[in-house]
Amino acid sequence: MSAAASPIDADRVAVAVEHLTAHGWYIWERALSAELCDEVLAEIDRLRRHGVPRSLDNDFHGHRTVRYYDVLNQGAVWRRLPVHPAILPVVRAVLGEDCLLNTYGTSIIGPGEAAQRIHVDDGPFIAARTSVLRGRPHLGPGRWRQPIVCNTMIALCDFTVANGATRFVSGSHTESYPARDDVAAVYEERTGRPMTVDAAVMPKGSVLFFEGSCYHGGGANTTDTARYAVTIDYCAGYLRTQENFLFSLDRATVASFDDDLQALVGLRLSEAGLGHVYTHDPDPLQARIAMASTPLFVG
After folding, report:
1. Domain made up of 7-237: CATH architecture
2. What is the pLDDT of residue 129?
3. N or C: the chain end with fewer CB closer than 10 Å?
4. What is the CA radius of gyration of the chain?
C-alpha cells in the first residue's frame, strides 16, 4: 500500500502543512473512517482482555491513562495507521520523505484523570543535543531550523473538553524550549502575554497534527467514560528514534510490512545515507531478515 496522496488528498495535505507551519498544529476532521476506528477499538479491547500490561504509570503520563506500546507486534490493524494516506503524506511533507516512526501507542484517558502538564515532544532531542554541546555555549541548545518531530493524535471517539481533549498552545512552536515545568510562567516571561490554551475538540476519526515544538498536553477527564486515542509520533530521518523498533520487532513481522512501513521503522537509507548495513542499502536485503539466523549481509 502506498502512502502517496491522491490529487484531492494533495490539496488537503498542502492546507495541513501550511497551517502546521503557521500555527504548529492542524486538525483534519474525520480523516479516518468510523469503521477503521472501530477496528482499532476492538483490538484495544482484545489487548485489555488478554491482560497486556499498560506502560508508564506516573505523574506525567497519568495514573488513569492506558498506554499500550509494542503495538506493531500485535494485530494487523496497527500497521495501517502510520501509513494512512491522510497521515503519512502530511508528516513527510513536514519532516521529509525519509522520516522515521519515533513512538507509537495508545493514549486512553480514563475517568478522573488529571490534566497532563503542558510540554513539548521534541524535548528528548533538544536535551540530547544540549548534553552533546555542553561546554560549547557559543552554539547553544536552540532549535533546528526545520521541524524535527511531528506528532499525531487520532481520535477514536469524539474529543470534548470534558473527556480530556488534547490541549495545545497555538503558535508556541516558534518559542524556545520550556526548560522549566511551569511552562505558563516561562511563556509569559518570554512573550509578555498570558499563555492561551486551546482544546482539540473534534469528532471521531479526526487527526490532530502538531509539531514536536508545539506546547501541548492531555486534558482532564471529568466524565464517566474513557477518551480513546492513538498517538503516532514521527521524527526526522537523521535522528535516533525514541523507540528502537528494529530491536523490538519480530523479524518475520517486519518482513511482512509494506514498503512505507519498513521505511518508517528504519529499513531504508536516509537522504544523507544514514542507516546503511555494512555500507549497503538495506532495501535489497529484505528477503533475508525473516530468517533470524541468517546474517543480513555476507561478503
Report:
1. Sandwich (2.60)
2. 53
3. C
4. 19
Q: Which of 218, 141, 138 is closest to 177 using CA atoms?
A: 141
**What is the reported pLDDT for 294?**
42
What are the strands, taking DSSP E only, across the chain?
25-28, 65-66, 100-106, 108-109, 149-155, 167-168, 198-199, 207-211, 216-217, 229-235
- In single-letter form, the type of residue at position 176 comes to S
Which three cell numbers mark 182? 511551569
The alpha carbon dihedral of 59, 62, 64, 70 has a sign of negative
How far is residue 102's CA from residue 88's CA, in Å, rounded to a whole number?
Answer: 13
Residue 23 is which amino acid?
Answer: H
- Tell me how many helices (H) and strands (E) the chain has: 8, 10
CA 44 → CA 54, 57, 267, 280, distances in Å? 11, 18, 27, 38
Q: What are the grid coordinates assigned to 220, written together?
A: 482532564
Provide the β-strand partners of residue 153. Answer: 208, 231
Domain range annotation of the chain: 7-237
Quote the pLDDT of residue 9. 82
Q: Amino acid letter at 263?
A: A
Classified as helix, coil or strand, 185 is: helix
- DSSP, residue by residue, 220-245: P--SSS-B-EEEEEEE-TTSPPSS-H
pLDDT tens-digit map of 177-193: 776 778 888 888 888 89
Q: 220-225 long-range CB contacts below 8 Å, 24 or more apart?
A: 220/113, 220/114, 220/115, 220/164, 221/64, 221/109, 221/110, 221/111, 221/112, 221/113, 221/162, 221/163, 221/164, 222/111, 222/112, 222/162, 222/163, 223/111, 223/160, 223/162, 223/163, 224/111, 225/111, 225/163
Provide the residue count of the chain: 299
